[in-house]
Amino acid sequence: MQSISDIRREYNKAGLDTDSLTANPLDLFDIWLQNAVDAKLDDPTAMTVATVDSSGQPSQRIVLLKDVNQGGFIFYTNLGSKKASDLKQNNKISLHFPWHMLERQVKVCGTAQPLSVAEVTKYFFSRPKPSQVAAWVSQQSHPIATKQLLMSQFHAAKQKFLQGEVPFPSLWGGYRVIPHEIEFWQGGEHRMHDRFLYKLDHNQQWQHQRLMP
């Protein structure tokens, strides 16, 4: 068996220089996200969401990005979940987009702001009906004895809501991540990767600088 310490490869798909940067990092993120979609990557909107609990313990999980605009990055979740519990105590958050096949990654640091009821309601009713039902059944992050019990509850809820509209669950919510730092990483040969960090200055203007790999 090959030692994992010997697993390596060269990164040579592209480079990143100042001529490729945009004044606002969200514009560059839009370009990179579209590149990931066009490349037909599996789950191009998948991102690692990192939060910290009251003891200072970080926690990560994969969540799908559902929108991004000049206001920030948007995702939805059960408000009874661990991530929501963490964010209630400490709204500092980090996102990470691992576009390995393009030899790219993006890291976002910011704060999470709860979305309005109108925003989360609109998105909830745009979801497929089985996903709406699942939001009612799953008490996210809570223990359950067996998968069979969970599926039994899911099928019972499907029958209950079979003929009508699935009502909006009170524990359904979402967050807008308002960034103050965004880093773009492009793999380079001989580990000479390209890294650019954007940060908001005291005037809320984006400034960027190259980082050593």
Automatic annotation (TrEMBL):
Q: What class of enzyme is it?
A: oxidoreductase
**Pathway assigned in UniProt:** Cofactor metabolism; pyridoxal 5'-phosphate salvage; pyridoxal 5'-phosphate from pyridoxamine 5'-phosphate: step 1/1; Cofactor metabolism; pyridoxal 5'-phosphate salvage; pyridoxal 5'-phosphate from pyridoxine 5'-phosphate: step 1/1
> Which SUPFAM superfamilies does this one have?
FMN-binding split barrel
The record's section on NCBIfam families has: pdxH, PRK05679.1
What protein name is recorded for this chain? Pyridoxine/pyridoxamine 5'-phosphate oxidase
Q: Which cofactor does it need?
A: FMN
Task: Show the GO MF annotations.
Answer: FMN binding; pyridoxamine phosphate oxidase activity
Q: How does it assemble?
A: Homodimer.
InterPro entries for this protein: Pyridox_Oxase, Pyridox_Oxase_CS, Pyridox_Oxase_N, Pyridoxamine_oxidase_dimer_C, Split_barrel_FMN-bd
Gene Ontology biological process:
pyridoxine biosynthetic process
Q: Which UniProt keywords apply?
A: Flavoprotein, FMN, Oxidoreductase, Pyridoxine biosynthesis
Q: Any note on cofactor binding?
A: Binds 1 FMN per subunit.
Question: What does it do?
Answer: Catalyzes the oxidation of either pyridoxine 5'-phosphate (PNP) or pyridoxamine 5'-phosphate (PMP) into pyridoxal 5'-phosphate (PLP).
Q: Where does substrate bind?
A: R8, R9, E10, Y11, K66, Y123, R127, S131, R191, M192, H193
| Domain Pyridoxine 5'-phosphate oxidase dimerisation C-terminal per the UniProt entry, residue ranges | 172-213
Say yes or no: keyword Ribonucleoprotein present: no
Q: Which Gene3D superfamilies match?
A: Electron Transport, Fmn-binding Protein, Chain A
PROSITE patterns in the cross-refs: PYRIDOX_OXIDASE
- Source organism per entry reads Paraglaciecola hydrolytica
What Pfam families does the record tag this protein with? PNP_phzG_C, PNPOx_N
* Classification of source organism: Bacteria, Pseudomonadati, Pseudomonadota, Gammaproteobacteria, Alteromonadales
Does the record's keyword annotation contain Flavoprotein? yes
